[in-house]
Design brief:
The chain is an alpha+beta fold. It has one domain: 3-Layer(aba) Sandwich (Aminopeptidase). It contains five helices and eight strands. Strands 1-2-3-4-5-6-8-7 form an eight-stranded mixed sheet, with helices on both faces. β4 and β5 form a beta hairpin. The mean pLDDT is 91.
């Protein structure tokens, strides 16, 4: 797993060395508004991070996570992750969260685009999935702009604040990502 740089962000892999930074972010207000952020003790969280796979590819099973660090302030403002499940389906799920004080600035979109590129460039995954609750309009727009297709609503698909909630399922296939990258490159070359 490597660091990913964008124009305004540094996506720093979560390791034993910086796990407590992510743990502190996970305690921030408003992160549990639309998702079920796990509530682990510091020690349990550190153990979980230590147990994660260290190298990303489509055959590695587990959670791969990056701190989202704003270049201007050098402050960690959230996280983004890829979760590769077992079963060999060639699919990973992307997830992200930005602390409330930094939302609405396009940081989540920038991080998501970078991790989508990373996932397809660094592996042979053929599909990325994402989900969010129907009321999370900002996340739905982000996923649509990143090329994901809204597939369906899954009733009681997640637990948020201890209650079952519906979720909207999104998919992005490698071939659609390749087409979008090719089109963007042609438009850029034509300028």
């Amino acid at each position: 797993m490597r660091r990913v740089d964008t124009e305004r962000l540094v996506l720093e892999p979560v390791t034993s060395a910086n796990a407590m930074t992510l743990w502190r972010i996970m305690q921030s207000a408003h992160l549990r508004e639309y998702q079920d952020v796990p509530r682990h003790t510091k020690d349990e969280f550190a153990r979980r991070v230590d147990a994660r796979p260290k190298a990303f590819d489509s055959r590695s099973i587990g959670r791969f996570e990056w701190l989202v660090v704003a270049r201007a302030s050098q402050q960690a403002i959230g996280w983004i992750s890829l979760r590769v499940g077992d079963g060999g389906r060639g699919t990973a799920e992307i997830g992200y969260s930005i602390v409330a004080t930094h939302r609405g600035s396009g940081f989540a979109s920038e991080a998501a685009r970078a991790i989508v590129d990373y996932a397809f460039e660094e592996s042979d995954l053929h599909q990325l999935d994402a989900c969010c609750v129907p009321a999370n309009a900002a996340s739905r727009r982000l996923l649509a702009r990143a090329g994901f297709d809204e597939i369906r609503v899954q009733r009681s698909g997640a637990i948020v604040r201890g209650r079952p909630v519906d979720i909207v399922i999104f998919e992005l296939h490698r071939d659609a990502w390749v087409r979008a990258k090719t089109l963007a490159a042609k438009k850029s070359a034509a300028r």
